[in-house]
Amino acid sequence: MDGSALSAKDKGAGEVAGTEVSTENQAEHRHVLLREELIAKVRAYHPRVKSELLGAAYDFAKLHHGSQTRDSGDAYYSHPVEVASLLADVRLDEVTIVAGLLHDVVEDTGIDIGDIEVRFGADVAELVDGVTKLDALEYSSKESAQAENFQKFILATTSDLRVLLVKLADRLHNMRTLKHRKKAESRDRTARETMDIYAPLARRVGLYSLAAEMEDLAFEELNPEARRAILYRQEELERENADDLGRIESDLQQLMDISGIQAKIKGRRKQPYSLWRKLERKSISFRDVADLFAFRIVVKDVDDCYRVLGEVHTLWACIPDRFRDYISVPKPNGYASLHTTVRASGNRRVELQIRTEAMDKTAEFGVAAHWGYKNKSYGFDAESARAAGLDPAANLEAFAELIQDGADASEFLEHAKLEMYREHVFAFSPKGKLIILPAGAMPLDFAYAVHSAVGDTAIGARINGEVKSLRRPLKNGDVVDILRGKVAAPVVGWEAMTITGRARSAIRRLVRERDQMQFRRLGEGLINMALRRAGIDPIDVKMTHTAQLAGFQTREEMAEAVGRGRISSADIMEAAFPGYRVERFDDENKLRLDNEHARLLVSGEDLMPGVTLHLGQCCCPLPGDRIMGVQEPDKGLVVHVASCPKLAEYDDHPELWVDLKWTELAKTGAVAVGRIRVNASNEKGVLAKLCAAVAQANGNITRIATQERHADFTELVMEIEVEDLKRLSQILAALRSLAVVDRAVRDQEVEDDE
After folding, report:
1. Most buried residue among 189, 239, 479, 625 by CB atoms closer than 10 A?
2. b/e string for 551-581 if b means 16 or more Cβ within 10 A?
3. Order of strands across the sheet with 636-641?
4. What is the C-alpha separation between 236 and 243, in angstroms, rounded?
5. Interatomic CA distance for residues 470 and 467, integer angstroms
6. CATH architecture group of domain 27-223
7. Please, is 460 exposed, middle or buried when counting C-beta atoms within 10 Å of its C-beta (0-12, 13-18, 19+)?
8. Which amino acids are annotated catalytic?
């Protein structure tokens, strides 16, 4: 028993008998063991580790954290020890591990960074300083501040990737102990930060296992019911398929033996959150997930990878659209492997990942796999990283480029998250330069990835030698030649033909530059009009002084703000002339997304003043959807979701199409109705389960109708009040996780299938 667990009664008895062992000495002994275990852990992969340096850092953290404790009741210095241990798990250099031990001492004790530099060297001090500055960023603040801090986070970590690695280890251990926090709000905030920022960044640098654990821990906090449901379904399916899975593994091993290929075969279970995301993204039931069952085949060299692939495809039929060759073209974070899905024994769809031991190491440790003991030095092996297709700096510089292209903080955060989550497509310039883009990228994304000047002057694209539409998504292996004009000029609707943050931010920059003067002229006109209504000649007003009274530095800033609608001319009048009052109308209630209010919620560069707007009942557009307008006879302009099947009727009449977008009011101040179709088991209590799932996902059902009813299943159509597309997607994912639900989709998707 730990000496600290002795009761007062036991302690007194020991003292009387003269046999009591000091609890402090017992605790000290336990910590010395932990200290030596950490050193031994590092020495196992780095024989020349400076044991004295690690030991000194351990003792320093323990001494200066002193009696501080964590929410769990553990001594605080147990946290930096665990962080250092996590860094040792991915075999990082001793400087990083020392920084892990010391990462909190500057922030939480009286030690300054100069003390760290004197005792442990400039490299350690620089890392500790970087992590301390990251800790000072408060992500729980308002969204704009959160976005600005994320910008600072990225810029800080691009200077030395080890800062990010220490911070990721710190966050993982905090997530492991999250349950000890008393305030639910604090747990929720930390879990969301982890899901939105830290886990995607870990994935970005190839630390898949670390990212998966962080996601699962965050998922457990944010949606415990869904996680339990998925785990239950996983275990249920594994029990049902245990014989088939055992037979598949045996067949694979036998195939390797017959072929004379030395291979290690490992089975794996999909993480609950990964399955949840797949259910949320795709209109499929749980049993239709292709890679519920997966095996990893690890061989000696690349030739064996392709030999295994040939043998497997000879034995079992492959599913063509499920094959990926990441050996030929690795992912940007260095990940390399062959992926194929086959119909194996028992007609089971099984995903196979085929890779070498080196690829497996990179898949497990990511960028950290290239810190290695080589030539009597221990540090980052840039040569081996480049050979693995990994450029650590470039991996995060994609985010930094968003700042350079003029993205404001909120745009940066939005597009950085998209960039982190997307898979990739690999395209080439005419000279053979590889350009890696997110899946779904289009030619303008390619143009801006080459250079901002190329994107700014792009007027068309030649793909594989043929002129193609700029709306055409790129495919793996495409050769893209960007056709350029003489001047940079924004084109209406081009932002909708991009998906990358860099391209969209650059196009927005062009539009801002073009619009700035127009907004200023409009604002000046509105201010002058307000002055004349008040009987004041604008010539008699000192506009610079008026701007300062209204809180602006220059008259141009004031005019632009009025022109953009950020402040009204009435506000300017009341600021400049305190006794003047303008009658106002202010409706604080949220608007319903209906035909009556459509003009307040939908806008577009080509939207003519006075045109009548109607919302398409075929697809029920929601804020968050990409939307298009089509001029229909006797109806005016009808707003459709861009993927609505009805739009196909107008393919031959492009002159009737108008690009539309949601206004800020639609994104923050409207309530919409989404329509979904659910196929569920026809059993007692099923409707109550469906309604409860919708309510728990913060949806409000306004109508339910039965479309079909059979002995085994029933098909329902629900209309649900939601704020936007994201909320509807969350509701669909919640429904799909229920055992009684076979299918849950937006109603338009059913029409599309038919």
Report:
1. 625
2. ebeebbebbbbbbeeebbbbbbbbbbeeeee
3. 602-603, 657-662, 627-632, 636-641, 613-615
4. 13
5. 9
6. Orthogonal Bundle (1.10)
7. middle
8. 107-108
pLDDT band at 23 (very low <50, low <70, confident <90, very high): very low
Q: What does CATH list as the number for 590-754?
A: 3.30.70.260
**Distance in angstroms (rounded) separating the CA atoms of residues 442 and 469:** 9
Contact 234, 269 (CB under 8 A): yes
- Decide: 485 and 459 in contact? Cβ < 8 Å: yes
Whole-angstrom distance, CA of residue 523 vs CA of residue 562: 5
Write the pLDDT tens digit of every residue in 211-241: 889 999 999 999 999 899 888 888 887 787 7
Q: What is the pLDDT of residues 181-217, one digit of tens each?
A: 999 999 998 998 888 878 888 887 778 888 889 999 9
Amino acid (one-letter) located at 746: R
Mutual angle of helices 501-533 and 555-564, in 10-degree steps: 100
Q: Identify the residue whose tokens are 């299918």.
A: 743
Choice among 127-141, 379-393, 678-692 with the minimum mean pLDDT: 379-393
Cα within 13 Å of Cα(299), Cβ side: 24
Select from 5, 3, 7 the least CA-distant residue to 27: 3
Q: State the chain's mean pLDDT as an integer.
A: 79
- Partners of 736 in beta bridges: none
Total count of residues recorded for the chain? 754
Interval 99-123: pLDDT, tens: 999 999 988 888 888 999 999 999 8
CATH 3.30.420.40 for domain 241-366? no
Is the domain covering 422-499 a CATH 3.10.20.30 domain? yes
Under 8 Å between Cβ of 253 and 266: no
Q: For residues 373-403, b (16+ Cβ closer than 10 Å) or e, as one string?
A: beeeebebbeebbeebbbbbeebbebbbbbb
For residue 416, what pLDDT is reported? 55
CA distance 698 to 722: 8
Q: Coil, helix or strand for 468?
A: strand
What's the CA gap between 486 and 576, in Å, rounded?
Answer: 45
Q: Which distant-in-sequence residues (6+ apart) come within 8 Å of 647 by Cβ?
A: 628, 630, 640
Is the Cβ–Cβ distance between 438 and 456 less than 8 Å? no
And the tokens for 52? 């004295």
Q: How far is CA 152 from CA 127, 134, 135, 423, 721, in A?
A: 16, 8, 11, 25, 37
How many beta carbons lie within 10 A of that of residue 184, not counting itself? 9
Strands 670-681 and 713-722: antiparallel
E strands, 606-689, in order? 613-615, 627-632, 636-641, 657-662, 670-681
C-alpha gyration radius of the chain: 30
Integer CA distances (angstroms), 341 to 173, 302, 319, 413, in order: 35, 19, 6, 34
Q: Which H helix or E strand runs over 661?
A: strand 657-662
> Are the C-beta atoms of 212 and 238 separated by less than 8 Å?
no
Q: Are strands 348-356 and 293-299 parallel, antiparallel or unpaired?
A: parallel
Instruction: Please give the structure tokens belonging to residue 331.
Output: 């992912």
Task: Say how far apart CA 692 and CA 56 lie, in whole Å.
Answer: 56
The H or E element that residue 720 is part of is strand 713-722
| The Cα angle at residue 570 between residues 564 and 571, in degrees rounded to 5 | 75
Q: Are 369 and 336 in contact, with CB atoms under 8 Å apart?
A: no
The confidence band for 581, taking pLDDT boundaries of 50, 70 and 90, is: low
What backbone torsions phi and psi does residue 471 show, to the nearest 5 degrees?
-85, -5
Question: 3-state DSSP: the chain helix, strand, coil percent, rounded to 5?
Answer: 55, 20, 30
Q: What is the pTM of this model?
A: 0.56
Q: Determine contact, residues 718/675, Cβ cutoff 8 Å.
A: yes
Distance CA 520, CA 558 (A): 8
Rounded CA-CA distance 537/529 in Å is: 10
